[in-house]
Amino acid sequence: MFSLPIELSAEVVLRWDAPAPEHVPLFIEGGITALWLAKHNSRMDKACAAAGVRVLGPGDLRFLKPDQLEGAGDRSAVVVKDGVWSGAGDLPREEAVVAGATARPWVEANGFRVGYLRALYPEMRPVLGYQMDADAGVKPGKPPALSSLELALIDAWAAGGNYVLSLTAEHRQALIDGQPEARAAWRALGRTARWLRANVALFRQPAFPNITMLVESGETTAELASLMYRQNASPRLVRPADLAAPDLTANAAQSCRVLVTAGIRPPSAEVRARILAHAAAGATVVTDAYSENAWWTAGACKLVRAFEDREFYSLGRGRLVAYKQAIQDPGDFAFDMIDLAGPERPLRLWDYGTVIALATSAPGGGPAKALLCAVNYGHPFPWDLVAQINGQFSEATLLRPDAKPLKLRVARRGPNSEVVLPALKLLAVVVFT
């Protein structure tokens, strides 16, 4: 069995029951680099070692629930037993990619879980370990298609984490029996897995800080973060204790324009001072559960406007927005945050009903300056997708697992740069320079 430390975030890991050495070619075809077995198997050790596949046993990974992480100690080999099976909701095929107000499908995605875990435990690269079962929202007797495993892997990697691949017994047998549809889906998974590993640096970058959200343990901020991701606010999630002081030398583009503090517990005096310093420096600080003795109240705050649900205060060069109650509708709240960011929102998509995107920094050491990573959770788009990212860029290159790099035309739109993505299937990464 594998005994040396393993960097889980860089591996493509598969759970595999009833293993046999003759299955090893399947692992190679599927892009699998590490195999997790519930029981020790010396024959598999030898066969996998010959093929360059790592073997992990029961003691090599720790499968924990989110509420067990706080006292977990060393989290380097932790797999989080949390997640939903990725994909768009059950709409008719012709409606599955429509983004209208009355026809937007519900999307099941785990990107916010990865971002949330990265914020709470910065030393840990989140690895999710949910399975195709009821806990992940899979209906009994109706397992998702094997092809959806590719999306599950993309879902986690695109957000900066990883996923331990899991199959049903039926899927596993279909692969062993060589059923054409199953093997085609498996080969597509292998192509994507190898592409993700070759481009791993693209998925390890911090999100733009334009909309920064403070998160902490518990369901409140996790739910708000979930809808911030879903509505393409592309938030940077940060623990209150890790919030840096505002960078007074930063330009308006790609600096903190909106700092969301809704749902957090009253912060320490030091964190409170850093939060309010962002408003004083020109950002919009957003809070909720207003009261006369709220943690954010300060003599420098001056009421400017009052509405039924919130009040606007001026503070230094910026402002503070206080919702009068705890946030009841996280989806509407996410749209409010996008409106507050205005032209400096991190990104914007048109016709995006089943697409979730993030705007991030680019890997260092090269000419790239920013990335836009878009994941489609529904059927392939039969038309072009218009996307904007905050910042002024002159060139853009589209990268995809299923196609060669493609140069895109960049158009300036105020403080933003706009590109057109052709026929988005599952994953598209645009590199801006």
List keywords for this structure.
433 residues, alpha/beta, TIM Barrel, Rossmann fold, Immunoglobulin-like, 3 domains, seven-stranded mixed sheet, five-stranded antiparallel sheet, 25 strands, disordered N terminus
Major sheet details:
7 strands, mixed
CATH topological fold name of the largest domain: TIM Barrel
Give the N-terminus to C-terminus distance in angstroms.
Answer: 45 Å
How many individual domains?
A: 3
Q: Can you offer a commentary on this structure?
A:
This protein has 3 domains: 8-198, TIM Barrel, CATH 3.20.20; 211-342, Class I glutamine amidotransferase (GATase) domain (Rossmann fold), CATH 3.40.50.880; 347-432, Immunoglobulin-like (Sandwich). Helix 3 crosses helix 7, helix 4 packs parallel to helix 6 and helix 7 (219-230) packs across helix 9 (330-341). The protein has a 7-stranded mixed beta sheet, sandwiched between helices. It has a 5-stranded antiparallel beta sheet with strand order 18-19-25-21-22, covered by helices on one side. The chain starts with 12 loop residues before the first strand and ends with a strand. It has 433 residues and is an alpha/beta fold. It has 9 helices and 25 strands. The model is unreliable at 1-5 and 91-102 (pLDDT under 50).
Describe what is shown at a glance.
The protein is of the alpha/beta class and 433 residues long.
Give the topology, please:
Blueprint: E1 13-15, H1 24-29, E2 34-36, H2 42-51, E3 54-56, E4 62-64, E5 78-80, E6 87-88, E7 107-108, H3 111-120, E8 127-128, H4 148-158, E9 162-163, H5 169-176, H6 180-198, E10 211-214, H7 219-230, E11 236-238, E12 258-260, H8 269-280, E13 284-287, E14 302-306, E15 310-315, E16 318-323, H9 330-341, E17 347-349, E18 355-361, E19 370-376, E20 385-390, E21 396-400, E22 403-408, E23 411-413, E24 416-421, E25 427-432
Parallel strand pairs: 1-2, 2-3, 4-5, 8-9, 10-11, 10-12, 12-13, 13-16
Antiparallel strand pairs: 6-7, 14-15, 15-16, 17-20, 18-19, 19-25, 20-24, 21-22, 21-25, 23-24
Helix pairs in contact: 3-7, 4-6, 7-9
